[in-house]
Amino acid sequence: VQLVESGGGLVKPGGSLRLSCAASGFTLSDYYMIWIRQAPGKGLEWVSYISGSGHTKNYADSVRGRFTISRDNAKNSLYLQMDSLKVEDTAAYFCARSDRTAYPKPIYYYGMDVWGQGTTVTVSS
Amino acid sequence: QSVLTQPPSASGTPEQRVTISCSGSGSNIGSNHVYWYQQLPRTAPKLLIYRNDQRPSGVPDRFSGSKSGTSASLAISGLRSEDEGDYYCASWDGSLSGPVFGGGTKLTVL
Prior knowledge:
The structure holds 2 protein chains of 2 kinds.
Chain A: E1 2-6, E2 9-11, E3 17-24, E4 31-38, E5 44-50, E6 57-59, E7 67-72, E8 77-82, E9 91-100, E10 114-115, E11 119-123
Parallel strand pairs in A: 2-11
Antiparallel strand pairs in A: 1-3, 3-8, 4-5, 4-9, 5-6, 7-8, 9-10, 9-11
Chain B: E1 9-12, E2 18-23, E3 34-39, E4 46-49, E5 63-68, E6 71-76, E7 85-93, E8 98-101, E9 105-109
Parallel strand pairs in B: 1-9
Antiparallel strand pairs in B: 2-6, 3-4, 3-7, 5-6, 7-8, 7-9
């Protein structure tokens, strides 16, 4: 079971970036998936989650309206489209597997049990 | 400011027992399970405790979790130098409809 993020990099304020998370070793469509970020020297912050089918999504207030989460289960991939980037979006971004979609909410039993190694996003002029 | 409150630091000597607290409210810890994550230097977080007091396979029984009301705690017994790192509590928040984290506790083994 493995998650591998990619797509991070240096971008100017107002720019866009698309992160990807490749999943292997499990059936992606069975699970909620979550993006979490960690600013340099800071703690963990939830960004967005999506249900197994993709029909249910939610975003943290800090990114709502600017970020879009999506998934392609056939390609075993999770995505995070980040637009109108701000300096304060600078962080390491982790994707994580959460509970099975059959559970009533994304964090219900095992929680976020598998994490990727992270990809770094730097927003700077 | 994090939704869940943890002490910023904790320390102990080898073989000692240390505890890390996590305080929340009725919308998160009070009505949902608590999870603990270990983040060693320059690595991704790793699930340490799920559903308040359950250990995933491979996590030593030196690590234990508990929850009471709107608070939880992580205990580490037989402290080792390799336990040095950051520890985060997490829960679901029904009001925010999303996961919430503590600010993290930096554990130092003296």
